[in-house]
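A common beginner's mistake is to predict each chain separately and then try to dock the pieces by hand. The better habit, illustrated here, is to supply every component at once so that their relative placement is modeled jointly.
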Amino acid sequence: DVVMTQTPVSLSVAIGQPASISCKSSQSLVGTSGKTYLNWLLQRPGQSPKRLIYLVSKLDSGIPDRFSGSGSETDFTLKISRVEADDLGVYYCLQGTHFPFTFGSGTKLEIK
Amino acid sequence: EVQLVESGGGLVQPGASLKLSCVASGFTFSDYWMSWVRQTPGKTMEWIGDIKYDGSYTNYAPSLKNRFTISRDNAKSTLYLQMSNVRSEDTATYYCTRGGWFAYWGQGTLVTVSS
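With all components supplied together, the output reads:
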């Protein structure tokens, strides 16, 4: 199975400050189609996960452009340019290239 | 609006069987692969498996394929997860999601395995 190593485990960020989460995979996530099926999800307290970003850097509809995704092959990053109160929760990376699909262990974002 | 509503969870004894359901609406169910994902009390996420739009093919996480079976009824727009010989480590919230793109999730149904 592809191991997704996500760091940090938690981070505390003041409103208006940037945040960055790293996700590293144990093998390349480039699929046979040439696409890289790396997603970022946010699970707010008491809610189901919600996809924010797919194919490394594509924002889902309604997701503010404060969020951005980048990376390639085995090294990926989610950045929030200016954290807002609504951003708190647990962020997960998820690879959909290799079966079985696998998740990172999550990063808990707290507001300082 | 895409909606996924899971049901069937509850308290179940070790070794028992349980069948979860996920009713879909807001899209043409028979056009999409569907997946099951679970989240443990410790918040670990695990992909269980998926099923092709016509039900003819399934993929499973190797650690679960001997005990879990995914099926669907396109006439009822319903996805199923049959769990057998459940163990305490199967205690989790179970989510259905649309396809392998994970853009849509249900609210989840909690399964607790305990004697």
